Amino acid sequence: MARGHQKIQSQQKNQKRQQELKKQQGHDQKTAAQKALIHTCTVCKAQMPDPKTYKQHFENKHPRTPLPDDLKDS
């Protein structure tokens, strides 16, 4: 078991390694996918990546609700 100065060095080395691992985990697929979902349904708050998918979703899931203004022109 390490004592004194060696113990402190080991703790600092481990802390540095843990910080580097956290930085690497920050760039995961889930975060990138969440950024791509920019259109949000006004009725159910579901998120879609593009207006075409949003319009299809709205026509299929909410047929009785009138289309929002941003979908009428597309």
List the helices and strands and how they pair.
Elements: H1 5-25, H2 29-36, E1 39-40, E2 47-48, H3 51-61, H4 69-72
Antiparallel strand pairs: 1-2
Pfam family, one: SERF-like_N
Domain Small EDRK-rich factor-like N-terminal: 1-37
Biased composition (Basic and acidic residues): 17-30, 52-74
What does this entry look like structurally?
Keywords: Cytoplasm, Nucleus. Residues 1-37 form the Small EDRK-rich factor-like N-terminal domain. Residues 1-35, 50-74 are annotated as: Disordered. It is found in: Cytoplasm; Nucleus. The chain is mostly helical. It has four helices and two strands. It has helices at residues 5-25, 29-36, 51-61, 69-72; strands spanning 39-40, 47-48. The protein has a two-stranded antiparallel sheet with strand order 1-2. It is rod-shaped.
Quick recap of the structure?
The protein is mainly alpha-helical.
Poorly predicted runs of 5 or more residues:
none
User: Topology as H/E string?
Assistant: HHEEHH
Rg for CA atoms: 24 Å
Category from helices, strands and their pairing: mainly alpha
Q: What order do the strands of the largest sheet run in, or round the barrel if closed?
A: 1-2
Subcellular location: Cytoplasm; Nucleus
Main location: cytoplasm
Keywords: Cytoplasm, Nucleus
Domain Small EDRK-rich factor-like N-terminal: 1-37
